[in-house]
Design goal:
60% helix
C-alpha cells in the first residue's frame, strides 16, 4: 500500500474522482468535503486520516512509525537497516495498529542519539528499545 497526502498531491483531481467512485460508506461525504474545500472545517488540522479499508501491513506500520518520528524532528539514519530492525520489532511484538505504532515511535524517540545537533534514530535505537521491552517482559513474568 502506498500512502499519499491528498493535500500535497499534484494529482488532487484524480484522487477526488477516485474517492467519488468509492463504494465505501463515507466516500460520498469525503468527496463533498474535499470538493467544497470544507474538509479541515469538519475534521480539524494536523491529524492522520486513513481511508483504505484493508488491514495495515508491517510496511504500513513501519512507515507510520517513521513519519511520526520525523514529525518530532528526529532523523532516521541508515533507513534500510532501520526498517529491517523496525520490521522485526513490529513482528515480534505484534505492533499492527496505528495506536501501537504511535507508542513505538514515541518510545523510539526516547532512545534516539541526542549527541549531535539533530537527534537520530537507527537500528541501535530499535535494538535498545527491544532489549528494554524484553527485560521488562522477563521481569513481569517472574512476579
Amino acid at each position: 500500500m502506498r500512502v499519499i497526502n491528498y493535500f500535497d498531491s499534484d494529482r488532487q483531481s484524480h484522487w477526488l474522482n477516485e474517492i467519488k467512485r468509492g463504494d465505501w460508506g463515507a466516500a460520498g461525504f469525503l468527496y463533498e468535503l474535499l470538493s467544497k474545500g470544507t474538509f479541515f472545517d469538519a475534521a480539524g488540522k494536523n491529524k492522520i486520516y486513513r481511508t483504505a479499508t484493508e488491514e495495515y501491513t508491517a510496511e504500513d506500520i513501519c512507515r507510520i512509525t517513521e513519519k511520526i518520528i520525523c514529525e518530532h524532528g528526529v532523523l532516521v539514519e541508515h533507513e534500510e537497516e532501520f526498517y529491517a530492525a523496525l520490521s522485526s520489532m513490529t513482528a515480534n511484538y505484534g505492533i499492527c495498529k496505528v495506536k501501537d505504532a504511535v507508542s513505538a515511535a514515541e518510545e523510539l524517540i526516547r532512545y534516539a542519539d541526542f549527541s549531535g545537533f539533530t537527534p537520530v534514530v537507527n537500528k541501535k535505537s530499535v535494538a535498545a528499545l527491544t532489549e528494554f521491552w524484553t527485560e521488562k517482559n522477563e521481569r513481569s513474568e517472574i512476579k
